UniProtKB/TrEMBL annotation:
Gene3D superfamilies: 3.30.300.20. This is OsmC/Ohr family protein. It holds the Pfam family OsmC. It comes from the Bacteria. Transmembrane segments: none annotated. InterPro entries: KH_dom-like_a/b (IPR015946), OsmC-like_firmicutes (IPR019905), OsmC/Ohr_fam (IPR003718), OsmC/Ohrsf (IPR036102), OsmC_Ohr_Peroxiredoxin (IPR052707). Coiled coil: none annotated.
Length: 146
């Protein structure tokens, strides 16, 4: 078994209407509660980072899966939407939906359309974030081939 640590440092002072920081090896941002939830809305927030982590992990996994399947001349543009709910005094991320647009040359389009559902499933199974949130957050994939 191979293990790898991902380290971040966070700082916060004061109550819920303040602004903190998060810093990792690469990422460095202010953090706060989103303004839509009554916070400062400065920098990013945990909800956005969760959706960003899921989206970036899935697009990388999908690109690697497509490459292994022989599709090397592709571009993927993806929007991901996280839907959260507030119930019984708790916030929870219910669902993250990825909308990958896969741009492929015309010669490979029909072949990719036939194989796509299996390749999407493989990419999801190989995504560390999908694996980490599975059974807690629903992950849906709604692809488009262009």
């Amino acid at each position: 078994m191979v293990k790898h640590d991902f380290k971040v440092k966070t700082k916060w002072q004061g109550g819920r209407d303040k602004v903190g920081t998060v810093k990792g090896d690469i990422i460095e941002s202010q953090i706060s509660i989103p303004s839509s939830l009554g916070g400062k809305g400065i920098g990013t927030n945990p909800d956005e980072m969760l959706v960003s982590a899921a989206s970036s992990c899935y697009i990388i996994s999908l690109a690697a899966t497509l490459e292994r399947a022989g599709y090397t001349d592709i571009q993927i543009h993806q929007q991901s939407i996280g839907t959260a709910s507030f119930e019984n005094g708790k916030f929870q991320m219910d669902c993250i939906t990825h909308y990958p647009e896969i741009h492929v040359n015309e010669a490979n389009k029909e072949n990719l359309e036939k194989r796509l559902s299996k390749l999407l499933e493989i990419a999801d199974r190989n995504c560390m974030i999908s694996n980490s949130i599975r059974n807690n957050v629903e992950v849906d994939i709604e692809p488009t081939i262009l």
